[in-house]
Every structure is written in structure tokens, then in C-alpha cells.
Write a sequence for this structure.
């Protein structure tokens, strides 16, 4: 039936009328006698195909095993069995690709997430990853919609850069020099002037600096792309390659920026609640099943869907770093020395245990912390009048910790210039950045959303490696 157009499984289940003849293509999830569950990733739900043994050769039926891909043409009929309204009565079945049941690693049973990471080339075919990937897509789309509707311009900032936006020195070098015998300069050091770009380059850790250049012309812009950090953090919240969404706005102060961050997070959550119902129901049930294996005191207080609704319906708490330190210093886990890093003096960096205490135990709401000590933040953040703090803000989420980091930017040339000097940053690599403060500088602000952390929050997945198709982490870049 070459001329019958392919119908997606989702459409077959929701739009096609009983009696219609359709062609579907997809992968076999399960087969029981002559009932085949087919999925093509358009929805978490499978289409039940009935392959009557009178009509098909036994050899063909035998080759239809879990993982095989099929093209099936048949008629949609009302289903006799429980669990589905309709099914497809197959008239023609073509096996597009077999999957040897002795060797196919994805059997129709529950596999651990750890095992699935080892077969990341096949895990998109599981219910969990199908759901995560569709939610991930929807979130990415919603980001573009949110900003597009507000008139922000999407800017593609470079992946290869010569600067270190965050100043943390956690960069992957990009070079075409021969690692066995690189050219050396007079001092015996590698001579990068002979490298591909005539200078040292690396993969970007953030699109912000170039985003700022665009914001100082187009006023409201955003970037959304991959960023790279060579930090040796083996946690459930860190990747070496992750996606960041960074809006940058001229004429916004730090409060305007906080307002935008809160509005955006709520919008994204509502968008997914509205458009990913089936997937969220599945992920919700999956998470609740997982919770049953936990000790009572470690269980979530809310289901996944409840916590999404809670965030979208409640205001975030906003407080200064100084206020947060006071709360933490006097908190039970600090006094009883249950924090791994005890809070003693003003000025220390907050660890995720502290962030999560504030959000999950103290306020039980998302928290926006602002006005951090200058000494623990990046060079570009605007100095406050107190001489100690900068106009930085972090949004902290339950179960995640920091999901957004941002700031008002230092728009005053002298202050920025002396900060760069003070921090020992190579001025040469940032001449263009400094120039924007000489020519028509303006107050501006922005922030970065860790996209995978957002996907984690919305899907309830505990490990960041399970919300990106092919994770890159220390010691691991397979697939
Ligand atoms: O707080 P960060 O480092 O901020 C910036 O990079 C700024 N340039 C953003 C800006 O103002 N335009 O990173 C922003 C967010 C963090 O809040 C976190 O959610 C995420 O990016 N993030 C990571 N996500 C996964 N793996 C990592 N290694 C991450 N590092 C940061
Ligand atoms: Mg940060």
C-alpha cells in the first residue's frame, strides 16, 4: 500500500475514526499472542495491532518481537479488550527491521536508569525517555514562544570563544595544534599564535558576554545553546555539556530581571502542564512508585504534578544573601553540625545543602537570593553601594537547588575596568566587552537558566544524566 500516507500513532489513537483504513509505522514494544503494541514516539501510548494468525504466516509473526520495526496497514476497529478504546486490525504487515530477542537489550520489563545510561543509543525507545524527551522538546519550544511573544530577539552566540565569561577557568581547549609536538615560543611555552585561530580558544561556558553586546543594540535578546564546563563535578546536577538559556535586557535592573525570571519559570511550567498531560501523568506515577521505596522522611511532600502546580500558583520568596546567612547560621542543621559545610561567617559561598534547606525546609517555596558578596561572584556583576556586595541573583528550586544564576551587569567603565584588573583577568581578551561601556553604555541585566535542571524539575528525574539524550560527564562521552 505504497500510496497510503503514514498516520502517527498519536493521531491513530485520538483522531482516526472507527472503520478507517490507515498505515502506521513504529517499533514493537510488546507482543502477546497476536496482539502487538506499537509505538512511534508521537505519544507515550501504544497502538494495539491485532495480527490474526489466519491472515499471516507463522514465520512473519515469529519475527515480530520486541524492538522490531514495522509498517502496518489495517482498519481501525473498536477494541474488545480492556485498556484501549480502539485497535488496528492488520491487513498487511511489513517488517522493516528485526531485533534478535536473544540480543536486544531492552526487554519489556523495568530496567534501572543506570543500566539504561549504558545503552543510551536505545533508551529513547523506553516509556520514560520518550516522555522526558517530549517534555524537553516542549520546554525548549515554550522558551522560544515566551520570548518571541515578548519581542525578544534570539541571538546565536558563538560556541568557540577566546574568553572565559565566568572566570572560573573551567574550559575545554579548542586547538588544531599537534599535541605531540606543538610549536613553542621563546619561553618554551606552547605558541598559540600558530594555532587555528591565531590565539588560544575554548568552548564557551556561557553566551552572556556576546549576549550583552546584542542587548546594547536590540534591548531585549536571548541566547539558548550548548555550554561547556570542564569542572570535575560528579553530581546529579552537573554536566560537562549542558544547555543554557540566557536572556539579556538593556534598561532592566536586578528587580526587573527577577520579575522576568519568575514569570518565565511559571510560564514554562504552565505550558508543560497544558501540553504534556499524558507524559506528565506517566512521569508522575513513575516518581510516586520510586518514592515508595524510600524511607518515610525522605519522601516528597507533593507529587510531581502537585509541585508543578504549587510553583505556578505561588510567589517566590525573595531575600538577600545576608538574610539567608542569618537564617542558615541559626538553623538546626547548622547548630547540630549536620551540614557538611557549616555556616559561620558572612562571605562564604552557599553549597547546595544550604540552598535546599532554605527552599525545602525553611520556606517550602522557590527562593530568589540576591545581593551576594562580590568576592564569590563573577567580574561582570554590578557593584552595590555598600562596597561589599554585587547585584547578583540566584533562583533556587526544591529538589534542584540553583536553577538560575544572573545579575545586573557592571555598566560603568571605571568600575568594570578596575574589577578586571583586580581579578587578574587578561584585559586583552575582553577589549570589545569593555568598549561597550565606553560607547553608549546603559544599565542592563540578565540571567542564565540551566535547561537540564529545568527539565529535571519538570520531569522529576533525579539525575541530570537522564534528561539529556547523550550526557557528557567526567570520564564519559560515549554515543
Ligand atoms: O550560574 P551560572 O554559572 O551563570 C552564568 O553562566 C551566567 N553567565 C548566566 C547569565 O547571567 N547569563 O550558570 C547558570 C545556570 C545555573 O544556575 C545552573 O542552573 C546551570 O546554569 N549550570 C549547570 N547545569 C548543568 N551542569 C553544569 N555544570 C552547570 N553549571 C551551571
Ligand atoms: Mg551560578
Amino acid at each position: 500500500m505504497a500510496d497510503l500516507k503514514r498516520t502517527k500513532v498519536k493521531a491513530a489513537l485520538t483522531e482516526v475514526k472507527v472503520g478507517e483504513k490507515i498505515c502506521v509505522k513504529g517499533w514493537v514494544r510488546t507482543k502477546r499472542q497476536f496482539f502487538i503494541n506499537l509505538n512511534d514516539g508521537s505519544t507515550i501510548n501504544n497502538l494495539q495491532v491485532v495480527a490474526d494468525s489466519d491472515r499471516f504466516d507463522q514465520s512473519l509473526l515469529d519475527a515480530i518481537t520486541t524492538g522490531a520495526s514495522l509498517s502496518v496497514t489495517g482498519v481501525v476497529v473498536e477494541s474488545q479488550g480492556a485498556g484501549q478504546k480502539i485497535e488496528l486490525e492488520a491487513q498487511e504487515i511489513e517488517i522493516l527491521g528485526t531485533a534478535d530477542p536473544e540480543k536486544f537489550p531492552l526487554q519489556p520489563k523495568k530496567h534501572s536508569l543506570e543500566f539504561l545510561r549504558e545503552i543510551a543509543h536505545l533508551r529513547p525507545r523506553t516509556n520514560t525517555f520518550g516522555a522526558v524527551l517530549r517534555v524537553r522538546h516542549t520546554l525548549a519550544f515554550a522558551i522560544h514562544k515566551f520570548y518571541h511573544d515578548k519581542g525578544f530577539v534570539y541571538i546565536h552566540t558563538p560556541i568557540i570563544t577566546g574568553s572565559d565569561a565566568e572566570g572560573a577557568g573551567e574550559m575545554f581547549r579548542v586547538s588544531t595544534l599537534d599535541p605531540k609536538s606543538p610549536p613553542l615560543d621563546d619561553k618554551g611555552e606552547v605558541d598559540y599564535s600558530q594555532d587555528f585561530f591565531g590565539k588560544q580558544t575554548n568552548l564557551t561556558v556561557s553566551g552572556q558576554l556576546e549576549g550583552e553586546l546584542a542587548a546594547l543594540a536590540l534591548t531585549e535578546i536571548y541566547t539558548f545553546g550548548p555550554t561547556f564546563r570542564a569542572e570535575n563535578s560528579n553530581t546529579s546536577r552537573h554536566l560537562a555539556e549542558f544547555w543554557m538559556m540566557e536572556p539579556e535586557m538593556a534598561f532592566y535592573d536586578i528587580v526587573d530581571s527577577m520579575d522576568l525570571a519568575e514569570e518565565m519559570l511559571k510560564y514554562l511550567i504552565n505550558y508543560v502542564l497544558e501540553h504534556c498531560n499524558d507524559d506528565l501523568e506517566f512521569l508522575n506515577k513513575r516518581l510516586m512508585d520510586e518514592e515508595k521505596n524510600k524511607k518515610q522522611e525522605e519522601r516528597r511532600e507533593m507529587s510531581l504534578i502537585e509541585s508543578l502546580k504549587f510553583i505556578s500558583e505561588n510567589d517566590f520568596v525573595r531575600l538577600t544573601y545576608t538574610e539567608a546567612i542569618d537564617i542558615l547560621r541559626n538553623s538546626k542543621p547548622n547548630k547540630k553540625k549536620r551540614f557538611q559545610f557549616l555556616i559561620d561567617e558572612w562571605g562564604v559561598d552557599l553549597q547546595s545543602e544550604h540552598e535546599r534547606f532554605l527552599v525545602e525546609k525553611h520556606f517550602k517555596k522557590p527562593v530568589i537570593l540576591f545581593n551576594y558578596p562580590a568576592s564569590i561572584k563573577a567580574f561582570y556583576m554590578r557593584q552595590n553601594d555598600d562596597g561589599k556586595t554585587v547585584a547578583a541573583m540566584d533562583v533556587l528550586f526544591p529538589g534542584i537547588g540553583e536553577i538560575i544564576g544572573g545579575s545586573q551587569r557592571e555598566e560603568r567603565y571605571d568600575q568594570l575596568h578596575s574589577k578586571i584588573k583586580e581579578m587578574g583577568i587578561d584585559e586583552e581578551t575582553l577589549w570589545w566587552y569593555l568598549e561597550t561601556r565606553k560607547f553608549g553604555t546603559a544599565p542592563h541585566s540578565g540571567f542564565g537558566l540551566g535547561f537540564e535542571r529545568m527539565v529535571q524539575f519538570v520531569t522529576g528525574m533525579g539525575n541530570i544524566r537522564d534528561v539529556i539524550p547523550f550526557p557528557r560527564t567526567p570520564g564519559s562521552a560515549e554515543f
Remarks:
- Residues 165-166, 206, 208, 229, 231, 238-239, 242, 244, 246, 402-407, 446-448, 450, 452-453 surround 4AD (ligand 1) (CB under 6 Å).
- The mean pLDDT is 96.
